[in-house]
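Input.
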Amino acid sequence: MGTAIARSLLFVLIVFACGQSASAGCPKFSDVIHNGGWAVADKRGNLVGGCNIDTPFIPASILKIPTALAALRVLGLKYRFRTELYLDSGDNLYIRGYGDPLLISEEVLVILQNLHSRGVRTINSIYIDDSAFALEHQPPGRETSSNPYDAPIGATVVNFNSVSFRVFRNHQVRSAEPQTPTLPIMRELGRNLTRGRYLINICPDGCRTKRRMARLTAELFRGLQHQAGIGGRGVFGIRKAPAHARLVYFHKNSRSLDEVLASMLKYSSNFIANLLYLTIGAEKYGYPATWAKANRAVHNALVSELGKKTAALIIQEEGAGLSRNNRVTARAMLAVLKKFQPHRELLRRRSHVLVKSGTMKGIFNYAGYLPEGNAFVILLNQQRNTRGTVLARIRRGSYPRYAVRR
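Output.
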């Protein structure tokens, strides 16, 4: 708590010291910006226009760009998430995950096929070993809803902790994905739903998250093991792999960090962002992963990339931008974008603009790169969403241009 307070005080002092000198671009936007700011930098990162560039605002999902920058710094582009598979003398399987956000059905089948190739012919009980995480709580700002972006996170998780299924006229429930078998958890969640197709997270109205996550993982492994030629039956549970169990397979995900980041940024996945955030902390300071380690590791990574003064202007409680306690200034985001420029193609392209959006109730932000390569930031913390108009004016260059001493 003391560290967080100190960082917040430093943030206020730096903002006060910077002042509001860079406000020449405000009058041109007074009809569309009531509580917000914007900034544009040239290809070298020099500020060429802006309004309220040193005012802190809630960033929402544009905060995923600083998270990505920290991941590149700490983990490296070739980093691959891992999962360890253990067997005991009773052919019981222990699955120890390390926060792999892309452990999806296709990847699980690859794991089971590799187990088969190593001589595994029977899997009885399946136990989930979640000891690589020691979370005090789920991500700050996460809400309880059925939306996939509100899915819980943990050390050993599959399919983004969400299920896709169809409910038919006769109340039958079937998987809506050819690569994923129909699981008991799907039937349970779809039991009282009307006819249609659904994609929901596994805790739509709140649940005991550890137990529910373990259940989905175990059911998916069980549902796919027969496709890999592995028999057996048994119970599910949460249990640390015992010392006498042997490590039968060490799996590295087929996707490296650049693909993970592309998925996170283009689809704005909160699930991926916070698993990545926690992994940064654990890889830097040791497992088990905690929010405190993640906060420290990401902040220190940004200090290394941006300098202490600029990094202090980015306040993060988590990695996805869910928390309304997160803060960032336009100036700080331009510094992030300057460093992130070699990886800009990881962002989604819209009308020739590479952009990451950030949207919550009363929050409408953009950050990215204009067609000519200039970085831009739009931070609107207001009820009216005018970021499209602000972006259009920025693209036309219809604002006063100036240089600000950095």
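The two ends are 31 Å apart (CA to CA).
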